[in-house]
Design goal:
Number of helices: 2
Strand order of the largest sheet: 2-3-4-5
Mean pLDDT: 86
Largest sheet: 4 strands, antiparallel
Helix content: 10-25%
Low-confidence stretches: none
Number of strands: 6
Oligomer: single chain
Radius of gyration: 21 Å
Strand content: 35-45%
Order of helices and strands: EEEEEEHH
Distance between the termini: 59 Å
Protein backbone atom coordinates (compact mmCIF):
# COMPACT_ATOMS: atom_id res chain seq x y z
CA UNK A 1 0.00 0.00 0.00
CA UNK A 2 2.67 2.38 -1.06
CA UNK A 3 1.48 5.86 -1.97
CA UNK A 4 3.36 8.11 -4.34
CA UNK A 5 3.76 11.34 -2.38
CA UNK A 6 3.58 13.56 -5.49
CA UNK A 7 0.09 12.16 -6.27
CA UNK A 8 -1.30 13.54 -3.00
CA UNK A 9 -2.15 17.24 -3.20
CA UNK A 10 -3.64 19.73 -0.74
CA UNK A 11 -7.09 19.36 -2.33
CA UNK A 12 -6.96 15.64 -1.55
CA UNK A 13 -6.92 12.28 -3.29
CA UNK A 14 -9.51 9.53 -3.08
CA UNK A 15 -7.75 6.29 -2.23
CA UNK A 16 -8.79 2.67 -2.56
CA UNK A 17 -6.60 -0.43 -2.34
CA UNK A 18 -6.46 -3.91 -0.93
CA UNK A 19 -3.72 -6.29 0.14
CA UNK A 20 -3.50 -9.81 1.41
CA UNK A 21 -2.69 -10.02 5.13
CA UNK A 22 0.67 -11.73 4.44
CA UNK A 23 1.67 -8.74 2.25
CA UNK A 24 1.04 -6.51 5.27
CA UNK A 25 3.07 -8.90 7.43
CA UNK A 26 -0.04 -9.96 9.35
CA UNK A 27 -0.02 -13.68 10.09
CA UNK A 28 -2.04 -13.58 13.30
CA UNK A 29 -4.86 -15.99 14.15
CA UNK A 30 -7.52 -13.25 14.37
CA UNK A 31 -7.62 -12.48 10.65
CA UNK A 32 -8.66 -14.63 7.68
CA UNK A 33 -5.40 -15.04 5.81
CA UNK A 34 -7.22 -16.00 2.57
CA UNK A 35 -9.19 -12.75 2.23
CA UNK A 36 -7.79 -9.29 1.46
CA UNK A 37 -7.70 -6.28 3.75
CA UNK A 38 -9.51 -3.43 1.96
CA UNK A 39 -8.68 0.23 2.52
CA UNK A 40 -10.57 3.24 1.23
CA UNK A 41 -10.62 6.87 2.15
CA UNK A 42 -9.14 10.27 1.47
CA UNK A 43 -5.52 11.40 1.56
CA UNK A 44 -4.69 15.10 1.93
CA UNK A 45 -1.27 16.75 1.71
CA UNK A 46 -0.50 19.10 4.61
CA UNK A 47 3.04 20.52 4.50
CA UNK A 48 5.44 17.69 5.43
CA UNK A 49 2.85 15.00 6.10
CA UNK A 50 -0.17 13.35 4.55
CA UNK A 51 -3.42 13.18 6.49
CA UNK A 52 -5.12 9.84 5.80
CA UNK A 53 -8.75 9.37 6.80
CA UNK A 54 -9.50 5.77 5.90
CA UNK A 55 -11.81 2.86 6.52
CA UNK A 56 -10.30 -0.62 6.80
CA UNK A 57 -12.43 -3.71 6.18
CA UNK A 58 -11.25 -7.27 6.76
CA UNK A 59 -12.60 -10.68 7.68
CA UNK A 60 -11.88 -11.44 11.29
CA UNK A 61 -11.60 -14.93 12.73
CA UNK A 62 -12.59 -15.13 16.38
CA UNK A 63 -12.77 -17.91 18.90
CA UNK A 64 -15.66 -17.14 21.23
CA UNK A 65 -14.46 -16.51 24.78
CA UNK A 66 -17.43 -18.46 26.21
CA UNK A 67 -18.20 -21.39 23.89
CA UNK A 68 -14.89 -21.69 21.98
CA UNK A 69 -16.61 -21.82 18.57
CA UNK A 70 -14.67 -20.26 15.67
CA UNK A 71 -16.62 -17.59 13.79
CA UNK A 72 -15.72 -15.42 10.78
CA UNK A 73 -16.99 -11.85 10.89
CA UNK A 74 -16.49 -8.90 8.58
CA UNK A 75 -14.97 -6.08 10.56
CA UNK A 76 -14.75 -2.42 9.59
CA UNK A 77 -12.91 0.33 11.43
CA UNK A 78 -12.19 3.99 10.72
CA UNK A 79 -8.71 5.39 11.28
CA UNK A 80 -6.95 8.69 10.89
CA UNK A 81 -3.18 8.81 10.36
CA UNK A 82 -0.52 11.46 9.90
CA UNK A 83 1.86 9.89 7.40
CA UNK A 84 5.25 11.53 7.92
CA UNK A 85 7.88 11.83 5.22
CA UNK A 86 11.07 13.76 4.68
CA UNK A 87 12.05 15.80 1.62
CA UNK A 88 13.36 13.46 -1.03
CA UNK A 89 11.03 10.57 -0.15
CA UNK A 90 9.01 9.42 -3.14
CA UNK A 91 6.64 7.02 -1.39
CA UNK A 92 4.99 6.53 1.98
CA UNK A 93 3.81 3.11 3.16
CA UNK A 94 0.19 3.21 4.37
CA UNK A 95 0.24 -0.57 4.90
CA UNK A 96 2.63 -0.16 7.81
CA UNK A 97 0.13 2.06 9.63
CA UNK A 98 -2.81 -0.24 8.83
CA UNK A 99 -0.91 -3.27 10.15
CA UNK A 100 -0.01 -1.49 13.39
CA UNK A 101 -3.60 -0.39 14.06
CA UNK A 102 -5.07 -3.81 13.33
CA UNK A 103 -2.66 -5.38 15.80
CA UNK A 104 -3.18 -2.70 18.46
CA UNK A 105 -6.98 -2.60 18.28
CA UNK A 106 -7.57 -6.36 18.24
CA UNK A 107 -10.13 -7.35 20.90
CA UNK A 108 -8.86 -10.56 22.45
CA UNK A 109 -12.02 -11.34 24.44
CA UNK A 110 -14.84 -11.51 21.92
CA UNK A 111 -18.12 -13.40 21.80
CA UNK A 112 -19.76 -15.24 18.90
CA UNK A 113 -22.99 -13.47 19.83
CA UNK A 114 -24.13 -11.24 22.67
CA UNK A 115 -26.29 -13.91 24.35
CA UNK A 116 -23.74 -16.74 24.13
CA UNK A 117 -24.39 -19.26 26.92
CA UNK A 118 -20.92 -20.81 26.81
CA UNK A 119 -19.97 -24.38 27.65
CA UNK A 120 -20.81 -26.54 30.64
CA UNK A 121 -17.80 -26.68 32.98
CA UNK A 122 -18.58 -30.30 33.89
CA UNK A 123 -19.38 -32.08 30.62
CA UNK A 124 -18.20 -29.53 28.02
CA UNK A 125 -21.55 -29.31 26.20
CA UNK A 126 -22.01 -26.18 24.08
CA UNK A 127 -25.06 -24.69 25.81
CA UNK A 128 -25.97 -22.74 22.66
CA UNK A 129 -26.55 -26.02 20.81
CA UNK A 130 -27.76 -28.50 23.41
CA UNK A 131 -29.21 -28.78 26.91
CA UNK A 132 -26.88 -30.00 29.61
CA UNK A 133 -28.10 -32.65 32.05
CA UNK A 134 -25.19 -32.45 34.48
CA UNK A 135 -27.26 -30.71 37.18
CA UNK A 136 -29.89 -33.48 37.02
CA UNK A 137 -27.26 -36.23 37.31
CA UNK A 138 -25.60 -34.74 40.40
CA UNK A 139 -28.88 -33.92 42.12
CA UNK A 140 -28.30 -30.15 42.15
Amino acid sequence: MKIKISDVVSSGLEYQDQAMPKDLDIVEDFIDLDKPVAVQGRLTRVNDFILAKITVTYTGVIVCARCLVTVKLEKTAAYEFDLDFVPGDRFVDLGRYVREELLLTYESRTLCREDCRGICPDCGANLNEEACECKNKTGE
